[in-house]
User: Fold this.
Amino acid sequence: MAKLQILHYPDPRLRTIAKPVSVFGDEIERIVADMFETMYGAPGIGLAATQVNIAKRILVTDTSRDGSDPRCFINPQIVETRGIEQMEEGCLSVPDVFENVERAEWIRVQAFDQHGTAFELELDGLLAVCVQHEIDHLDGKLFVDHLSSLKRSRIRRKFEKAQKQAL
Ligand code: NI
Assistant:
């Protein structure tokens, strides 16, 4: 297993639209294992392949905060939603920024696990929010895209400045 490098906003590679996984096997299982290691090492509660510069529709989550609920969603599709709720979100690609975002409060999601087995789940609460946030990543979207343009440009300036100072 290997820890992967996480891209940071406003890296244009975070705008890549990921492609569906069509062949399951060792390569996908290795990517998923590396993504879990990267997410737990960060530490974070969710990670999309886009964030580690892999353009495949894979995401991992563990909202337990004690490592007891690892989940993998490949080619995830939200097929039904209910309600709206607001929750404070953060993102490993946008460190130290936390803002309220509106999402569906309940979702039905279909996906495959890392071995290629199809499943369907009904989710609510933090895990529902997390899965919606990570699916956004697979479509090249970030949670800051849900904020006002004023807030977003403030955050963007902050990160551009930090990157210049790091050079
Ligand atoms: Ni994120």
Remarks:
- The chain has a mean pLDDT of 96.
- Residues 91-93, 133, 137 surround nickel (II) ion (CB under 6 Å).
- The beta strands are 46-48, 58-61, 71-82, 85-91, 94-103, 106-112, 118-124.
- The longest helix spans residues 149-166.
